[in-house]
Design a protein that fits this description.
Length: 223
């Protein structure tokens, strides 16, 4: 859901505790590779912060910075503007509902998908995951269950979706020398309807990854 959706939701949830997964509009993702990676979350966070300060133009004190270790010598940096987190928290303070967790829908899908949260998926995983909610698409590319590239894109039609995914696949091929062949697709609440989803995957040369209970999983992950 969006930040605004979370505010509207707070007014109708009632006197209970809730966790909220926001879609990725306000989030900024960066994946960093290192020659050596120290042990311990604190040192890894300091290393990611150091790398981020070299490439990120804004003041990091204005963001909530989360650092994840997907494996190997790679770190995933996730930024959420304080103003967006604050808006959601303020809305919940003004209503009887209690906010206990504020997360990201894309990361939740990644966690459940690649941590083997679905039956039969521990020994295999798709090479690319695509989340689509309203006009926002997020493509996550991974190898051996470890993400190496993420891209957000906007699309308001089936044709634009096809164009953006194709452009992203070409970028990955050119810059990472990889050609993904399998896709896990999670359509939350897209602004448009697909006339022939199978044809899109055929044109992109991607094989849909069978996900047990995929629709329900996408709904629970998108929050």
């Amino acid at each position: 859901m969006s930040v605004d959706d979370a505010g509207r939701l707070a007014s109708v949830l009632g006197n209970r505790s809730w966790g909220v997964f926001l879609r990725s509009d306000p989030f900024i993702f960066n994946i960093f590779d290192f020659e050596h990676l120290p042990r311990g979350a604190k040192k890894q966070r300091e290393l990611a912060q150091w790398r981020l300060e070299k490439v990120f133009p804004e003041d990091l004190s204005n963001f909530i910075h989360t650092v994840l270790h997907p494996g190997g010598k790679r770190l995933l940096s996730v930024l959420l503007p304080l103003r967006d987190a604050g808006r959601v928290e303020d809305w919940f303070r003004e209503h009887p509902a209690s906010l206990t967790f504020l997360g990201n829908s894309t990361l939740e899908l990644m966690n459940r998908l690649w941590a083997g949260g679905l039956a039969g998926m521990r020994k295999q995983s798709p090479q690319v995951m695509i989340e689509l909610d309203h006009q926002l698409g997020v493509a996550v590319f991974q190898e051996s269950s470890r993400p190496y590239y993420m891209r957000k894109f906007r699309c308001d039609s089936e044709q634009m979706f096809l164009m953006e995914v194709r452009k992203t696949l070409e970028y990955v091929k050119s810059n990472y020398s990889r050609t993904p062949r399998s896709v896990a697709f999670f359509p939350g609440r897209p602004k448009f309807a697909f006339s022939n989803q199978a044809e899109i995957w055929r044109q992109l040369n991607l094989t849909p990854f069978a996900i047990p209970g995929g629709a329900a999983f996408a709904m629970s992950g998108a929050g």
